C-alpha cells in the first residue's frame, strides 16, 4: 500500500511527543523472523494497513462467530488515523485478537536512516501505549522489506518477532476476489496468510469464504501468539494503563 502521509510530517509530529526515539530502558532482545506457524493444525490470518472504516471489527466479529481469532498489523496514519479508532482497537484486544505494529506511515523502511526507523516505530508505539497501555513487540515491515539496520533497531526497541508470511492473497496488489478465494483453497496447516483489512471485498466476501473453507479442512484459525507459541509477554510489553484523551495524527 502507498503511504498516505509523508515521513517528514511523522517526524515533525514525533517531536511533540514525550517519548525518546530510541528507548534506553530496554535491553537488546533476540529477534526471530517468522514465516509459518509452529503447529500444523493451525492457520494464522493476518491483516495489514488498518485501522480503516471499522473493517477490522467486522473481520473479528465474523471470526468470533466461528470461535476464531486473527492478528491485525496497524499503521498510525495510512488509510486512516489510529486515534479515530480507539474504541475499536480496545475491543479487538479485549476479544482476543492480537494487534501489532506495521509502522506509523507505511513507509519503505529500508530507505530510511536508523534515526528515521526509530521515529516510525516510536510514533506507533506511543499510540499503542495511549490506547492500550501496551507497547507492541511484534512487527511486520511494510511491503515485507527489511534489512540489517531495521533488525538492529527492532532488537534495540525490544521487539521479539518480525512477522512475514508464506501465503499471500495479493488483495493488496489488486487481485480479484475470485483469485483471493483460490488462495484460500490452497491454504494448509501452519500457514500465515497475508491480507489487508482496508478492502470491502476482502472483508465481506473473501474472509467469510476463507473461514468456511479452512474450517471444513479442520484447521484452527488463531492469532499469532498461539500460532507461534509465544507468551503474552513476548507479544506486548505492559507499560501502564490505557489513557483517556483526544489525540490527532
Automatic annotation (TrEMBL):
Residues spanning the signal sequence: 1-21
Organism of origin is: Naganishia liquefaciens
Q: Which residues form the NodB homology domain?
A: 41-222
Would you name any one GO CC term? plasma membrane
The membrane topology noted for this protein in its Swiss-Prot or TrEMBL record is: Lipid-anchor; GPI-anchor
Q: Which UniProt keywords apply?
A: Carbohydrate metabolism, Cell membrane, Cell wall biogenesis/degradation, Glycoprotein, GPI-anchor, Hydrolase, Lipoprotein, Membrane, Metal-binding, Signal
Compartments it resides in: Cell membrane
* One BP term from GO: cell wall organization
Coiled-coil annotation reads: none
The protein's matches in Pfam families, at most eight in alphabetical order, are given as:
Polysacc_deac_1
List required co-factors: Co(2+)
Which PROSITE patterns does this one have?
NODB
| Primary residence | membrane
Superkingdom assignment: Eukaryota
Q: Cite a single GO MF annotation.
A: hydrolase activity, acting on carbon-nitrogen (but not peptide) bonds
Q: What is this protein called?
A: NodB homology domain-containing protein
Cited InterPro entries = Glyco_hydro/deAcase_b/a-brl, NODB_dom
Amino acid at each position: 500500500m502507498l503511504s498516505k502521509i509523508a515521513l517528514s510530517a511523522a517526524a515533525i509530529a514525533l517531536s511533540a511527543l514525550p517519548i525518546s526515539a530510541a528507548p534506553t530502558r530496554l535491553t537488546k532482545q533476540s529477534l526471530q523472523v517468522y514465516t509459518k506457524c509452529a503447529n500444523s493444525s493451525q492457520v494464522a490470518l493476518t491483516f495489514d494497513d488498518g485501522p480503516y472504516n471499522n473493517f477490522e471489527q467486522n473481520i473479528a466479529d465474523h471470526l468470533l462467530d466461528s470461535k476464531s481469532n486473527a492478528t491485525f498489523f496497524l499503521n498510525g496514519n495510512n488509510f486512516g488515523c489510529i486515534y479515530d479508532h480507539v474504541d475499536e482497537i480496545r475491543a479487538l484486544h479485549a476479544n482476543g485478537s492480537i494487534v501489532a505494529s506495521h509502522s506509523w506511515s507505511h513507509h519503505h523502511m529500508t530507505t530510511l536512516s536508523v534515526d528515521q526507523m526509530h521515529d516510525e516505530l516510536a510514533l506507533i508505539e506511543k499510540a499503542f501505549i495511549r490506547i492500550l497501555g501496551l507497547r507492541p513487540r511484534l512487527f511486520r515491515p511494510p511491503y515485507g522489506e527489511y534489512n540489517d539496520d531495521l533488525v538492529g533497531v527492532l532488537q534495540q526497541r525490544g521487539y521479539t518477532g518480525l512477522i512475514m508470511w508464506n501465503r499471500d492473497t495479493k488483495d493488496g496488489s489488486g487481485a480479484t476476489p475470485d483469485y483471493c478465494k483460490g488462495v484460500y483453497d490452497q491454504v494448509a496447516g501452519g500457514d500465515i496468510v497475508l491480507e489487508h483489512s482496508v478492502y470491502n471485498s476482502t472483508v465481506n466476501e473473501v474472509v467469510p469464504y476463507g473461514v468456511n473453507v479452512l474450517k471444513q479442512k479442520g484447521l484452527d484459525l488463531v492469532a499469532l501468539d498461539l500460532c507461534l507459541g509465544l507468551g503474552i509477554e513476548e507479544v506486548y510489553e505492559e507499560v501502564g494503563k490505557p489513557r483517556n484523551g483526544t489525540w490527532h495524527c
